[in-house]
Amino acid sequence: MKTSYWEKEIETIDRTSLKKLQLKRLKESVAVALKTPFYKARLKKAGITGPDDIKHWEDYKKIPFTTKDDLRECYPNGLLAVPMDDVVRLHTSSGTTGTPTVIYHTKKDIDNWSDLIARCIVATGATEKDIFQNMMSYGMFTGGLGLHYGAEKVGMTVIPMGGGNTKRQIQLMKDFGTTVLHITPSYILHIHSKLAECGVKLEDLKLKKAYLGAEPYSENTRKKAEDLFQIDAYNSYGLSEMNGPGVAFECVHKCGMHVWEDTYLVEVIDPKTGESLPEEKEGELVFTQLVRRATPLLRYRSRDIACIRKGQCACKRTHRRLSRITGRTDDMLIINGVNVYPSQIEEVVMRIPEVGTNYQICLEKEGTLDKLIVKVEIYSKLFKGELSEVDSLKNRIKEELRAAIIIHPAVELHEPGSLPVFEGKAKRVVDNRAKL
Ligand code: DLL
User: In what helix (H) or strand (E) does residue 229 lie, and over which residues does it extend?
Assistant: First the structure.
């Protein structure tokens, strides 16, 4: 496997120099943060009134955590650290679950972010020869514009299609010989299910790679996407508070996502106690932005659950790797007292070959008890087969789910195309328990 770099010196920097760089940048970020009313008050309470209060690398622990609620309270400009004239772009969250949050960027911030994306792309072995079709939405969502500018930096031919309009997407893939896709895991499976309807065969496409991210998914879903399209799929992680995509990305070895540690100080903490956890131990990811000037964010609690992998990657990058995101501190379902992550259910259904490309997790009340219903689409030829075959498949799925999550779910089999399709982030869980 060929390893290529966008910025070799920084990507393979030795750990001692990396820590020195992090300390220097952390001090600078504290100085920037102190320009905002929010951090001025928050840091003062913790005894930090200037960058010199951070003397050693470990001193980051003196800084209090920042949460999503803090960001909401700062809306619209409590975290703006530069004059508005220096801001060239802002991204806000949709605000569907409360007050929105906003992240501002200077020209240099956008440039740094695009460089990180270029690093990610080159790490997967893609080059200026590739045709890159961006199927993530453009606009406030960071997936579209985020990858766009990085891909242009690499010199790829960018097709800025954005999300949705499946038939047109497939047509463009065929007409322009798209080689790299940027897409959500749920949408790539949907695209595959529509190829035949569009009269397109796999041989008509030139697809080689896909960057999958923006929502949780399992290793089995990656394998499914890789097998169906005969491609390499790479995990891509990010969150809008930390710019968006480009926080962590897999290289050609696909064994965890390198976090760009010259830009992000990453910690894994016990979500209950806030204590740091060692490598290989799962906990909540906490990030500090080390270079952004318009909106500083220190020790931001992501609510994402993952761990940092031990050891060095064969690509020789020294930036450590994150495991797959296995859940969030806030998406955990408690079903009749049992903790279940939606990702555990996905893991099971996606490894069953008869299961198609879409599924849904529904929760209802049955008397005083919770009822879990897992709805899965199965390939149409099975529906035309023997009833006993369908029944035995249903039982098999039930059994495998019970073994994985301990509780007994009801399983419903659905025809292809009958469950809701999401062109952006999928909403897999329908929880009606509170309504009943
Ligand atoms: O989803 C940024 C992004 C765009 C990442 C495109 C990758 C590709 P937000 O809308 O702020 O930003 O949502 C961030 O999505 O905290 C995770 O819970 C989840 N997420 C993102 N990537 C992954 C992934 C973008 N690879 C939230 N695996 C994060 C699991 C992911 N979850």
Answer: helix 219-229
d(CA 87, CA 350): 44
Name residue, tokens 């005894």: 47
Domain count, the chain: 2
Same domain? For 157 and 229 the reply is yes
**Which token pair is 401?**
């789910």
Q: Is 142 in the pocket of ligand 1 (CB under 6 A)?
A: yes
Of 329, 362, 377, the position where a domain reaches its end is 329
**Alpha carbon distance 261, 245 (integer Å):** 14
328 lines ligand 1 (CB under 6 A): yes
Segment 246-299, tens digit of pLDDT: 999 999 999 999 999 999 999 999 999 999 999 999 999 999 999 999 999 999
Which pTM was predicted?
0.88
Question: Are 94 and 140 contacting, i.e. CB atoms less than 8 angstroms apart?
Answer: yes
Ligand 1 and 162: CB distance under 6 A: no
**Cβ atoms within 10 Å of 431's Cβ, excluding its own:** 13
136 lines ligand 1 (CB under 6 A): yes
Those residues with Cβ within 8 angstroms of residue 98's Cβ, 6 or more apart along the chain or in another chain: 72
Q: Same structural domain for residues 312 and 416?
A: no
Q: In whole angstroms, what is the distance from residue 89 CA to residue 310 CA?
A: 37
- Identify the domain boundary among 275, 305, 329: 329
> Which domain covers residue 86, as residue numbers?
8-329
